Amino acid sequence: MTLPGGQKPRNSCQPCKNRVSIWRYRKKPLKSTSFRRLGVRVSDRFLLPRLPTFWPNRRQFLAGAAAAASWAALGPSARAEGTNGKAHALAMHGEPKYGSDFKHFDYVNPDAPKGGQLRMSVANSTTFESFNPFIVRGSPAAGSGGAYETLTIQSNDEAFTQYGLLAQFIETPDDRSWVSFTLNPAARWWDGTPVTPEDVVFSFETLKTKGKPLYRFYYRSIAKVEKTGDAEVRFSFVPGDNRELPLIVGQLPVLCKAYWEPRDFEKPSLDLPVGSGAYRVTNFEPGRYVVTSRVLDYWGRDLPVNVGTNNWDSVRYIYYKDEAVALEGLKAGDFDFRQERSAKIWAIGYNIPQIADGRMVKEQIPNEDPTGMQCFAFNIRRPIFQDRRVRQALGYGFDFEWSNKALFFGQYTRTASYFSNTELASSGLPQGDELKILEKYRGKVPDEVFTSTYEPPKTDGTGNVRDNLLKARALLQSAGWVIKDKRLVKQETGEPFQFEFLLYDPMFERIVLPFLRNLRRLGIFASLRTVGIAEYQNRLDNFDFDMIIGSFGQSRSPGNEQTEYWGSAAADQPGSQNVIGIKDPVVDELADSVISAPDRESLIQRTRALDRVLLWGFYVIPSWHLRSYRVVYWNKFSRPAISPKYDLGLDTWWVDPVKAAALASKQSS
């Protein structure tokens, strides 16, 4: 499944971060876009045979030239009093890196050749049921998000700055109480009709009332949306200090009103919708494949935000029920690119002739991605997990050091923050402004927030966890749990301590089972159940689980998504991302304070305070992360000299004709 807007998760635990089906755990926050143009997830496996290049005819060339000309010729207007003027971009804090006259992002090759077919696997997936990725019902087809565009698009080398895409200009007052978008006059649907303010208003109303629950949370602070001119639409916000809203609204996927209005938006369908994006579905067979092809007269081809991207002529998504079969497909030449998510396979699975003789490339590409929080997540709606001491105790049962040594070949780092690999992560004891923020909650949060440095439990890596289990037993006893007939039971009621760990990916069984065996030594009888993707998705949507593998992606500019992750209002909303079920007024206030941060420094201090309170709540058992992309690919690609800081940037790669010819020669010899 693709994420809304084609988003992807950040660089967290490899075995779970890449699932196409469980999109709402594997995503970055909505404000951080990635591969939106193709609907591509970096987790997918790829293959690229060379196809003839599409050459635009005169009409197609003029369409792209008109979009670029309208961007350059009209230019931002003079600054209106009390606003940013009609600007080409909007930064969360400070000024955009790229000026109004920029030609392309620094991390692209503006002269990248176009051509070839990108073939990708969708592993551990059986089929798809819809080309609408915005609704709860039905599994959306891989690549279906590529049909849709947003008003603005984020750069991948800034913390949080949005640049015009469908919108040519962005205007917001100094207090950011509203935002107005002027649509690009060249913006067109595939049928040639213009994208209008009516489409934008319709999209907002439809997604908020009929889309996935996350849209209702993201857009709940929008008071009114109205057309204010032939090409202008304004979003007015409820009173408050949510300075992120103008940027969040820019990420609104815009739907074609003429197509969707007479249809049932909430009903899964394999009818091909009308979009405005660079790629459209041209062929498909449920359960087997989807093919998307570049739109020859794509209106936005020459926009600065698109230059150097959309380099494939077509993309083919091939469905595989089994991960192992997909991996063998890569080695056999059925795919060309794979981002490896298994430490074991990375360590020993590529000792193959194709790597040794240079036909394939195996490399790690460093990044500055926020790694977020991958974890074993509790469902604290369950009575047995409502005591913080119990959750803390179970954390002592996970032996990361042994797992990293025995299972992961020492490749991972233990996660100790919800915002790891960023300056937003808490560390040591709170000081300065962070301490001032937390002082008002003294007595309402655990004392350790002020007195102790958070560190996950550690072992010597030998597999001997006796000392940690003794600490766990003491915590459980203090919470009223005792051993009776070799089982842990509630002292007052005799209720046994038992729960189910729910998975959808068998690859994780080898990681979870040692954890459950350690818990058995405490008298806890925990079962492991691996189910199909459809059942897993349904159970998560309805919070019908005890413990799962969770992943909470973060960006360098956290905001609205924090209330969706941890907010009380989201806890009882089916399909929300507050899968843990947190209902804490302190967490609510801290999340709101992050959203309202007036500048970068205050954002850092408020986020650290939130991070610290979440950590000492023991809502999860942190797992691990990696600070690089592990990739294996057939040696026919080239990529820009500069990589984006916060993304793999696969949509900026291209098939290199010289490399492709050399590879073909080696393969035939």
Mean pLDDT: 87
Radius of gyration: 25 Å
Share in helix? 25-40%
Shape: globular
Q: Which spans have pLDDT < 50 for at least 5 consecutive residues? A: 1-66, 68-74, 76-80
How is the largest sheet built, in terms of strand order?
12-13-14-3-1-15-26-16
Number of helices: 21
Strand content: 15-25%
Structural class: alpha+beta
Major beta sheet summary: 8 strands, mixed
**Strand element count:** 28
Termini separation (Å)?
39 Å
Textual characterization of the structure:
- There is one protein chain.
- The protein has about 675 residues and is α+β, with helices and mostly antiparallel strands.
- The chain contains 21 helices and 28 strands.
- The strands form 8 sheets. It has an 8-stranded mixed sheet. A 5-stranded mixed sheet has the order 22-21-23-17-24. A 4-stranded antiparallel sheet has the order 7-8-10-9.
- A hairpin with a 3-residue loop joins β12 and β13.
- The two termini are about 40 Å apart.
- The model is unreliable at about 1-65, about 70-75 and about 75-80 (pLDDT under 50).
In a nutshell, what does this entry contain?
With 669 residues, the protein is an alpha+beta fold. 27% of the residues lie in helices and 19% in strands. The longest helix is centred in the N-terminal third of the chain and has 17 residues, at 58-74.
Provide the fold topology:
Layout: H1 14-17, E1 45-47, H2 58-74, E2 89-91, E3 117-122, E4 149-150, E5 152-154, E6 161-164, E7 167-171, E8 178-183, H3 197-210, H4 213-218, E9 222-229, E10 232-237, H5 245-250, E11 253-254, H6 257-260, E12 279-285, E13 289-294, E14 314-319, H7 323-332, E15 337-339, H8 343-348, H9 353-356, E16 360-366, E17 373-378, H10 388-395, H11 400-406, E18 413-414, H12 432-439, H13 448-451, H14 466-478, E19 481-484, E20 487-490, E21 498-503, H15 509-520, E22 525-530, H16 533-541, E23 547-552, H17 561-566, H18 568-571, H19 585-595, H20 600-616, E24 620-622, E25 624-625, E26 628-634, E27 637-638, E28 654-655, H21 657-668
Parallel strand pairs: 3-14, 21-22, 21-23
Antiparallel strand pairs: 1-3, 1-15, 2-6, 4-11, 5-6, 7-8, 8-10, 9-10, 12-13, 13-14, 15-26, 16-26, 17-23, 17-24, 18-25, 19-20, 27-28
Helix pairs in contact: 10-14, 12-20, 19-20
